Amino acid sequence: RNLMRVKENAWLFQQGKELLEPIGSSDEIGEVDRVFHNMALTIRRAQDHDSHMMKLLHESKERLDTLLNNLPIAVIVTSPEGLIESLNPAAVELFEYSPQELKNKPLHTLFPSGASGAVVLENLKELSMTALEAISKNQDAIYTEVQKKNFAASDGERVLVAALDVSERHDKGLLCHGQS
C-alpha cells in the first residue's frame, strides 16, 4: 500500500500535480517517500525560479526592443567586417531600406566612401562623432554624424553604429568643423 502511494506520487509529480501527503512511516519506504518529497520540492522550486527568471528576461528584452524601436537615432549593428546585421526603425526611415534589403550588405552601402564596410568602421573612432555623408536607397545625400561602439554579443563581436541625421544643420552651415 505504501509502495503504491510512492508510485502514485511519482506519477503525480510527472504530471505536474500536487503530491499526496508524505507517508510518515519510519521504514525504508517511508524514507524513500520523504526523500522523494524533498527532491520534488527542490525541483519545483528550481522550476519556479527558472520560470520567474525567464519572465524577467522576456520583460527586459521587451523594454530594450521598445527603446530601440522608438529611439530617434538610426542604430545599425554590423559584424566586425562591416556587414549589416540589423537596424532599428529610425535607420529604416532615414535610409529608406527595409531590414531585409540591407541584411549582410556592407556598411558602405549606406556610407559610400569608396571603401569597404570594414574600412568605414576602421575610420570611425569609438564613441567619437564623425561627420559622414550617407546615401539613401533613392540616392539622396544624407549628412550624418556617426559614432561606433564595439561590443561582445553572446555569439561574437559586433559593432553598433549610431547615425544622427544632421542634414538640416549641414544646409545651414552649422556642423562642427574639423571632422569629415
Annotation keywords:
180 residues; alpha+beta; five-stranded antiparallel sheet; 44% helix
Structural commentary:
There is one protein chain. The chain is of the alpha+beta class and 180 residues long. It has helices spanning 2-14, 28-70, 89-95, 99-102, 117-123, 167-171; strands at 74-78, 84-87, 130-135, 141-153, 156-165. A 5-stranded antiparallel β-sheet has the order 2-1-5-4-3. Helix 1 (2-14) runs parallel beside helix 2. The longest helix has 43 residues, at 28-70. The radius of gyration is 29 Å and the shape is rod-shaped. The N and C termini lie far apart (85 Å). The mean pLDDT is 88.
Structure in a nutshell:
With 180 residues, the protein is of the alpha+beta class. The chain has helices at 2-14, 28-70, 89-95, 99-102, 117-123, 167-171; strands at 74-78, 84-87, 130-135, 141-153, 156-165.
Number of DSSP E strands: 5
What is the count of helical runs?
A: 6
The level of helicity is 40-55%
Q: What is the C-alpha radius of gyration, as a whole number of Å?
A: 29 Å
Strand order of the largest sheet: 2-1-5-4-3
The biggest sheet, with number of strands, parallel, antiparallel or mixed sense and barrel status, is: 5 strands, antiparallel
Topology:
Blueprint: H1 2-14, H2 28-70, E1 74-78, E2 84-87, H3 89-95, H4 99-102, H5 117-123, E3 130-135, E4 141-153, E5 156-165, H6 167-171
Antiparallel strand pairs: 1-2, 1-5, 3-4, 4-5
